[in-house]
Amino acid sequence: MIRYTIDSRLDKIKQARIYFPKIVRATTLKMSDVEDLLQRRSTMTEGEVHAFLIALSEAIRFYVTNSYTVEVEGLGIFTPAIKAKAVNVIEDVTAKTILKKSVNYRPSIKLDNKLNDAKFIKAQFRQTV
């Protein structure tokens, strides 16, 4: 279940308060929390699960930083991305015109469908001024 609360803000154009649902995020889980769940749901030992997750993250980092898009079935697609400064002369396009490097993540259809099927429950009301 995904918990949400009601938040609000002032709509500057209409000069009226508007309300909207906002997800209440639980604490951030550490890799050890994920490892514990995976160990309970598989035949792997704690060390094997840990080693696998480390190797998986290293493999994704390796491929993404070498221009590959990586699809992890059931999880999503990781793609390298950049934001760059536009210039008027083609010869001026260099690595120095790259302003930001990042990774785009697109959830898999399975994960998207799971989110679409998720149940939402209303948490305690919280108003932001």
Tally of individual helices: 3
- Radius of gyration, Cα only, in angstroms? 21 Å
> Strand percentage, roughly?
25-35%
The rounded distance between the terminal residues' Cα atoms is 27 Å
Report the principal-axis shape: flat
Q: Detail the poorly predicted runs.
A: none
Order of helix and strand elements from N to C terminus = EEHHEEEHE
State the total count of DSSP E strands. 6
**Strand order, sheet with most strands:** 2-1-6
Mean pLDDT: 93
* Main sheet specs: 3 strands, mixed
Structural class: alpha+beta
The share of residues in helices is: 25-40%
Strand-helix topology:
Elements: E1 2-11, E2 16-23, H1 31-40, H2 46-64, E3 70-72, E4 76-84, E5 98-107, H3 109-117, E6 120-122
Parallel strand pairs: 1-6
Antiparallel strand pairs: 1-2, 3-4, 4-5
Task: Describe what you observe in this structure.
The chain has 129 residues and is α+β, with helices and mostly antiparallel strands. The protein has a domain at 69-119. Helix content is 29%, strand content 33%. The protein contains 3 helices and 6 strands, in the order ββααβββαβ. The protein has helices spanning 31-40, 46-64, 109-117; strands at 2-11, 16-23, 70-72, 76-84, 98-107, 120-122. A 3-stranded mixed beta sheet has the order 2-1-6, with no helix packed on it. The chain has a 3-stranded antiparallel beta sheet with strand order 3-4-5. The mean pLDDT is 93.
Task: Offer a few descriptive terms.
single chain; 129 residues; alpha+beta; 3-stranded antiparallel beta sheet; flat
